[in-house]
Design brief:
- With about 200 residues, the protein is mainly α.
- It has one domain.
- The protein has nine helices and no strands.
- Helix 2 crosses helix 3 and helix 6 crosses helix 7.
Length: about 200
């Protein structure tokens, strides 16, 4: 039977590693500080997406939450690979080519024929939609920096600054001392809270 404990422990260790990298960057140049926190945000969001995929497929293939409770599964699978196949094909007129894990709406769509929307895993994700949405928009601005990612990133800037601020790059936003704790620290800590709640840790 698949288990979540090892994946949960690994995720926490990964996020702690990124937090340690960002902990004391004051002696570095501004350019270096921004590069470190932007890289930490990129890695941390990738870790989150990977955990969402891992947890969903493990729940479908028989894993329990860490407190021993069993999820309600509509279409059980014998393995994580089989769970992915079910997500792509069950209940669909055409198989999904790709399963995306960066938006709560996409995750719900991936799972809608195999996990009920009332299941704890999906309810917890929905509760943390703003966190996931903000991290994704910042991540895309760092990774792609095209007109679409810049426009969507400004919605995050507006939330914290009250208006568009074209000069506020992700590095500046994540490190700004006008927020306490810094946003990079908030995002990393909240990511661990999200995952702990998801696994019922």
């Amino acid at each position: 039977m698949p288990k979540l404990q090892r994946d949960y422990t690994k995720f926490c260790s990964q996020i702690d590693g990124q937090a340690n990298l960002c902990a004391d960057v004051t002696l570095l140049s501004p350019k270096q500080r921004k590069a470190i926190v932007e890289t930490a945000l990129l890695h941390s969001f990738d870790f989150l997406q990977g955990f969402f995929l891992c947890m969903a497929t493990k729940l479908v293939s028989g894993a329990e939450y860490l407190d021993g409770t069993k999820p309600i599964v509509l279409m059980p699978a014998r393995s994580q690979n089989a769970a992915i196949i079910n997500m792509k094909t069950i209940g669909r007129k055409k198989p999904k080519k790709d399963l995306r894990w960066s938006k709560v709406s996409d995750i719900k769509d991936n799972c809608k024929f195999v996990i009920p929307t009332t299941e704890h895993f999906l309810i917890t994700l929905a509760f943390h939609t703003i966190l996931i949405d903000e991290m994704r928009k910042i991540r895309n601005r760092i990774a792609h920096n095209n007109s679409d990612s810049r426009m969507k990133y400004q919605t995050v800037v507006r939330r914290y600054y009250g208006a568009d601020q074209k000069h506020i790059t992700p590095g500046i936003l994540l490190l700004s001392d006008r927020f306490a704790p810094r946003l990079i620290d908030q995002y990393l800590a909240q990511s661990k809270v999200l995952v702990k709640q998801m696994v019922k840790g």
